[in-house]
Amino acid sequence: MKCKEKIFSAVIDRPVGFKDSFGNVYLINYGYIPELMGGDGEEQDVYIISRDQQQPLENFTGKLVAIIHRRDDIEDKWVLAPANEEIDKILIAEQTQFMEQYFDSWIEMVEESNDSRP
């Protein structure tokens, strides 16, 4: 997917170390983008991926770098990263494995476009 760099602000409702009702411990920050609806009718979920940023957060603003599509679920997960970091599929797969192992998913990288069209 090619698009102009998109910056989004997320609310983190499952910070690093959060343990959900299924016993999953979140190894990265996870949250949602307020007022942007996802495929499940809820606000768009996001993983926060970073090589350097590993402390629990309450909020995060960063660039959209990828979309994780799930073949066996109705929603996609977006991947945000710090604007100054280059993130690749390998890092995304490693850092989201704790949750994506339960789904048949694939990663689509969002590439910046140098095109001046909207």
Automatic annotation (TrEMBL):
One of its GO terms (molecular function) is inorganic diphosphate phosphatase activity. It comes from the Bacteria. Its cofactor is Mg(2+). Its EC number is 3.6.1.1. GO terms for biological process: phosphate-containing compound metabolic process. It is an enzyme of class 3 (hydrolase). The keyword NAD does not apply. Pfam families: Pyrophosphatase. Keywords: Hydrolase, Magnesium, Metal-binding. InterPro entries: Pyrophosphatase, Pyrophosphatase_sf. This is inorganic diphosphatase. GO terms for cellular component: cytoplasm.
